[in-house]
Design a protein that fits this description.
334 residues
Length: 334
């Protein structure tokens, strides 16, 4: 009786852990459903011209397009990658969400931060609500033209997609943990989940004269990005190991702020996917030009897209990828 109970508990634990791919991704068996989704991906890819697109259900590829092993600068997807590292560091009590910039002795080039700005917390930066509108590295034209005036909003009161917040978070991570971002990602996430291509050499620090805090662009292949998406779809677990705390997976992908971008929800450097039509718990990481890692736990679905802007300089709208996801989700069994 005890043996049977242990077996049952083992099976339950395995089911809860979710499915992970083998050392290399395998394709799902061909069915009417996979043919339908492959057709959707083909039509979309011919029209939009991604470098790579990969759709995963459970631990298998159900459709793909392009060069899945080609490394691409995934732009602002970097922010969600760093958010995952924050979840680990906070669980290990090396960083606190409630620490202020004053506590952490964070400042910047002149015009320096004032005392009110230094009351912004790590949580404020993670949700892009610091109220600090200092110039920053890797800003887009849209950010530059729409940046509010310094002192116009108190910390924690107003959402603005702000590269200063994201870049400062990179510096805080390095300062408080004593770890390089890319080496940390390779050791703490990429290696445990079996990424095939990523190494710490696939990141760099991009400095600009306007700020002491660099951006930290990452290069990823689609097949490695899909493992990261699947890790979140599985609640941070991989082969029975809790790589990222489950509580952080939930908290970081919830909407902590409503944005000025179609009232979309923003978490801790993740974009929320509303519950319709694909169930609760979904989120996506998005980067300029159409870089995306999206996961839908209720559908056991992960979708990844990379776009080389040298080959496709116009890029791909995020809304186009979301529409494809809706079509794919509708084709999956209930």
């Amino acid at each position: 009786m005890r043996l049977i109970l242990c077996l049952v508990l083992s099976l339950v634990a395995a089911a809860q852990a979710g499915a992970e791919p083998a050392e290399q991704w395998l394709k799902a068996d061909e069915t009417a459903m996979t043919r339908t989704i492959s057709g959707l991906v083909q039509v979309y890819s011919i029209r939009e011209k991604p470098t790579a697109l990969m759709v995963v259900e459970g631990d298998k590829i159900i459709a793909s397009w392009g060069a899945l092993d080609r490394k691409i600068n995934v732009a602002s997807v970097r922010k969600s990658l760093l958010s995952a590292l924050y979840g680990i560091a906070i669980a290990e009590h090396r960083i606190s969400l409630t620490s202020t910039l004053a506590d952490l002795r964070i400042d910047d080039k002149k015009p320096s931060l004032n005392e009110a700005e230094k009351q912004a917390t790590v949580r404020d930066l993670l949700t892009s609500r610091s109220g600090i509108y200092h110039l920053a590295a890797h800003e887009t034209r849209e950010i530059k033209s729409n940046r509010p005036a310094r002192g116009s909003h108190a910390p924690g009161t107003y959402w603005f997609y702000n590269n200063w917040d994201f870049n400062a978070l990179g510096a805080i991570y390095r300062k408080e943990t004593g770890e390089d971002i890319f080496a940390s990602f390779a050791t703490r996430i990429a290696r445990p989940i079996g990424m095939e291509d990523f190494s710490k050499r696939d990141g760099r620090y991009a400095f600009e004269k306007v700020s002491v805090y660099p951006a930290y662009p990452f290069q990823l292949t689609a097949r490695d990005a899909a493992r990261f998406g699947l890790l979140f779809a599985n609640g941070g677990r991989w082969n029975g190991r809790q790589v990222i705390p489950a509580a952080w997976v939930r908290e970081s992908t919830w909407a902590h702020a409503r944005t000025n971008r179609g009232n979309r929800g923003y978490g801790y450097m993740w974009w929320e996917l509303s519950s319709e039509p694909w169930g609760r718990g979904g989120a996506y990481a998005a980067g300029f030009g159409g870089q995306i890692i999206a996961f839908l736990p209720a559908k056991k679905l992960v979708l990844v897209q990379t776009v080389d802007l040298r080959a496709n300089p116009k890029g791909i709208r995020t809304s186009a990828v979301i529409e494809l996801m809706k079509e794919i989700a509708a084709a999956l069994p209930e």
